[in-house]
Amino acid sequence: MKTKAKITTSEYISNKRKKLCMSVKEFADAIGLGSDGDSLVRAWEKGESEPSQETYKRIQSFANRKPLAKKNENPKFRFIDLFAGIGGIRIPFQELGGECVFSSEWDKFSQKTYLMNFGELPAGDITKIEAKEIPDFDILLGGFPCQPFSQAGLHKGFSDTRGTLFFEIERILQEKRPKAFLLENVKQLIGHDGGKTLTVIMEHLRNLNYFAEYKVLRACDFGVPQIRERIYIVGLDKEVFSIPDDYSFPFPEPSGKKTRVGDILEKEVDEKYTISDRLWDGHKKRKIENRKNGKGFGYSLFNENSEYTSTISARYYKDGSEILIDQPGKNPRKLTPRECARLQGFPESYIIPVSDAQAYKQFGNSVAVPVIRAIAKKMDTEITRLE
Question: Residue 146's pLDDT is what?
Fold first, then answer.
């Protein structure tokens, strides 16, 4: 009887990476290798060298389970996750006992991250999905992109949102009639097109016979050291709930918890996150020029004792200018992807299975989870109270 041949280290690493559908670059960044990580992984897979015992253990434990793949046997409610990104809005509603019955996200890299953490591959482009194909649900969640309402008038009815991604939410609300919804967008939505865009959105939501109200909240008021002002729109179905004419949704108040940037920083950071002399010189030069011209002040520098950072954006991968961490005696550095995850309040168990550049885009496009958590709790309470 033949015994099964023992798998080599090179075979194990190659098989694991391919099974996870990760490129060499993604795998190297995900397990925390330095700037030469690509070359190291290729050498390991060819059997030309081997990783240290510590690194090999890290490889073995990486993505062994999907940390947020939880099924509630008796869900308290059912919800859908539109424009899902990497699932930041989903997490708190799942924590409350809800079950996600449908998700949609068109970006293939975000889909990969979502699958790795939640065990579900989101459906693709929502514009190509019929509302009737979506399972019944109680709450709609969506951090929808803000597109210009170039043809939108204030009283043109249902048709004046066609061509915008808000229309996808509107048509699903009309068809499926969930009890409630939560929408998230940039603060600038309030002033977009002189305020007309938000007026159109709110009017359309109310025309569907939903109570709808919005408020701007800051992430730093809910325990994470980042300003991040966002608008949140909460809706309740007036055909389901008895909502008084003078009703106002009780958006959460600031937690009062003090924040400190040092709380999200890693103790040891690879040199690849330190910006080059050329980039640092460029940042300083632009800051001087901007001041002379009366424009924005350019890069923003923070240290461990800073109360909070500026808002991380999807463009962070380009030069890191909005959040640079001071390093006395040398050039400042960018945040690591794990620090970005912490800055947005994602759990430590959250898996980052993409390259650093993609991770920056994903967390920059995502939400501050603690803010969503506070709103979700209020929604859960109000839904129970008003039913």
Answer: 63
